[in-house]
Amino acid sequence: MIENLIDGPLWYLSLAVFSLGVLWQLAAILFASRKPDLSVARGSAGSSAIKTVFSRFLPHREMRARIGIQYIAGYLFHLGLFALLFFAAPHVLFLEENLLGFGWTPMPHWAFIVSAQAAFLGLIILWLRRLMNPATRLISTRDDHIAALLTFVVMLTGCLALLEEFTALRLLHRFTVELWLIYFPFSTLMHAFTFVPSRAFTGAWFGRRGVDA
Amino acid sequence: MSEKLEKGLEVLRSEVDGKVKSFFSSCVNCGICAESCLFYTETLDPRYTPIYKTEPLRKLWRNEYSLWGKFTSAIGFAKPMTEADLSDWEELVYDGCSMCGRCSMVCPVGVDIAGMIFKVKHALSKAGISPEGLVDATQRAVDIGSPMGITLKTVQAMIKHVEADTGLKIPVDVEGADYLALLSSNEIALYPEYLESLAKIFDHAGVSWTLSSEAFEATNSGLQIGNKTIAGQLVERVVAGAEKLKVKTVISPECGHAYTALRWEGPNFIGKAFSFKVVHILELLDELQAAGRIKTSGKEAERLTFHDPCSIVRRGGIDAQPRNLLQPIAEDFVEMADHGNMNWCGGGGGVSTNERAEQLKLTAFNRKKSQIEETGAAAVVTACSNCRMVMEEGVETNEMDIELLGLTEMIAAHLEDRPAGQ
């Protein structure tokens, strides 16, 4: 009964909420009215927008000593998570059979272990900093903690499902993924998509003024 | 709902556009912006974390524009905003932010945090929730034409002195001149040598220029308090003066707020493009030097460094020009460790005219103090009278043996003597 629910209606419901929610949020950003800037531009807004989308992947030289640990932890977490999401053998198989109709070579088991360790380590460092640093402790919201906790649980159940061949563990993982997908468009997890227009808007603003952002 | 709250929320709503939505949807509260802000690094008070200063706007977005806010509203769980959500942020945005914009440069998801803080200031100002000193200065700017209460008579007296000192005629209300020069309040009240320098340089370079008896004041208190309506009114006066004299170009003085108000935000404040160009004095001097119309001689022997005014460099794009101008006249020029777009503010900016923030401003100056001391420079050159005034105060309070210099005056002091008859 529960298996049918998790593998069937709940899966489709979570996919629908995720897809429609993300599309609604992106449409709200991209189709919102914007007042034209009447000042005379000094530089190109377009090229600066594109450049800034990529340049913000690295911290400014002047900031590296102060925020290096956050960038390193951030990269450990995000790269580890993406590797697990797109190259863990069960995910490749699942995507091929249920969504895409084609697959690719999954990563070997040792790479899975390394990716999982990197993702967990990065997430834990970022979460500890969120709790221990006075600035992040003040500005963090319930949403930030729920998003981190849900992601942690999804990764944990994923590891358990891979290492143990029990249906219950696979169902538990799939259930947490469904919760994560439903929560996604309502939360700061949306930054996975909205960081692109956000960086582009700011890059364009600085670019018009001839500033390398 | 109180009138202030109603007005504040109405203005905040008018500020929510695609940019704001993308910014707040992207922010994960990583706190990296705190490490870029001198009010946080020098006090370690977490309330000065830049993104925290945007909370009134962010809360409104969360309640009314985010998917979660719409959902909670639909099921009756939304927590409405109160007047405290606005008034409790007044001190943070007016005392604890100079609008230097360093935070906007470092945000990994690209949030223009300074831009968001300005929107909060705009809402607070329109709702009547602003520091008394700033409100009074802004009112003086509207009523008299200058936040310091400077009138045409004061300017005329200064012109008389400059003419006597230089032997040069200061052109006033010359129709059809190429350039209309503006002055900031500080340059009239504290640094009259700026006008003297303009007179010498323009005479040397053969520039056709004028002052306007109706539009001499460039300081924009509306921008400082964050009120776009008042900022627009003040810009309108300059536009009217420039159009009346039919000048081709308006020169922004060495003042960051004036430059931002005229060059970048002015047309948006008044809702129409200008019929003239706006240049910062450094841009013009750089052009004149590159064209060979300014020739300098001699070099400053002492070690010099340059303070990049945030509104002119980081948020204005004038980075290379001051360095080009300094190169021929500085024997021993050293950059601060963080300079150009990533320079640290001196603690002034929008806070400079807010008397209530005096102590906090001096604490924030400690960052600039360290930067200056690291260079071993004997003098700091800058190109914003506001920055200069705030740093002079910091230097004096800290008993530092440092001289503060204006770049335009330095150029004027090094002009090559022309052969007789030219």
Strand content of chain A: under 5%
Supply Rg of chain A.
20 Å
Report the total helices of chain B. Answer: 21
Mean pLDDT of chain B: 95
Number of domains of chain A: 1
The count of β-strands of chain A is 0
> What separation lies between the terminal Cα atoms of chain B?
71 Å
Please mark out the parts of chain A with pLDDT under 50 across 5 or more consecutive residues, or reply none: none
Radius of gyration of chain B: 22 Å
Find the biggest chain interface.
Answer: A-B, 65 and 58 residues
The secondary-structure class of chain A comes to: mainly alpha
For the sheet with most strands of chain A, the description reads: none
| N→C terminal distance of chain A | 54 Å
CATH class of chain A: Mainly Alpha
Number of domains of chain B: 3
User: Superfamily at the CATH H level of chain A?
Assistant: Transmembrane di-heme cytochromes, Chain C
Oligomer: heterodimer
Give start-end ranges of low-pLDDT stretches of chain B.
Answer: none
